[in-house]
Task: inverse folding
């Protein structure tokens, strides 16, 4: 009995001294979860395609543990989902309307960009939209007005100087063309508070101005839908 009493006393003493290990183990578990979440957040920031899934997962974790869900985070995830759908819808719309060969669609983490060459929209040296141009821009406007994102319209030209006509410089011509597209979008019901027009003239070429093909590439309109940060 004395031996058993001493043994029980020793075990109780050891257990009491080892309680710190329980707290230490919990702390290590929490730290591991914390750093895993930081890693996931970092990966989501680098890859916008994963950002929405990250936002949704974090909101689900908060909800599961009884925490208050960040409404702004949910709204941001919903906005990113709408932007992804819009990009798919634009591509589908271009195919449906046989416009794939006339409109290039490019996308990155900042924006969805549509590129249209000068000949598709304007006559040489002019800034008023041709009638066929309106048929091209109408389905684009129909998709863009579905979400309340900012839309930036950029006008670009080649570097051949303007010698006659209404416009005194390529810069002026590029701004006038951007404004024509902006005005058409406004008439199609896109909120003017989300529209902006910029004219870059010949100062942001994408092709070689020494060749006819390069100059044709430089004479373009770029329509960018800005994505949610």
Result:
């Amino acid at each position: 009995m004395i031996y058993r009493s001493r043994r029980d006393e020793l075990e109780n003493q050891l257990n009491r001294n080892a309680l710190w290990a329980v707290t230490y183990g919990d702390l290590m578990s929490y730290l591991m979860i914390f750093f895993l979440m930081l890693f996931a957040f970092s990966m989501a920031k680098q890859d916008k395609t994963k950002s929405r899934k990250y936002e949704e997962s974090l909101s689900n974790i908060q909800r599961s543990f009884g925490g208050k869900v960040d409404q702004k985070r949910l709204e941001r995830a919903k906005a990113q989902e709408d932007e992804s759908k819009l990009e798919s819808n634009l591509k589908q719309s271009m195919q449906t309307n046989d416009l794939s060969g006339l409109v290039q669609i490019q996308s990155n983490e900042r924006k969805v960009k549509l590129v249209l060459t000068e000949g598709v929209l304007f006559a040489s040296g002019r800034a008023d939209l041709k009638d066929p141009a309106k048929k091209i821009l109408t389905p684009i406007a129909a998709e863009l007005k579905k979400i309340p994102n900012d839309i930036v319209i950029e006008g670009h030209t080649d570097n051949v100087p303007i010698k006659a006509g209404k416009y005194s410089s390529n810069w002026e011509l590029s701004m006038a063309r951007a404004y024509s597209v902006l005005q058409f979008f406004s008439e199609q019901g896109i909120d003017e508070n989300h529209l902006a027009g910029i004219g870059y003239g010949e100062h942001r070429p994408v092709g070689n101005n020494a060749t006819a093909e390069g100059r044709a590439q430089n004479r373009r309109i770029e329509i960018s839908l800005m994505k949610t940060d």
Summary: The longest strand covers residues 111-117. Strands lie at 103-107, 111-117, 151-156, 195-201, 220-226. The mean pLDDT is 84.
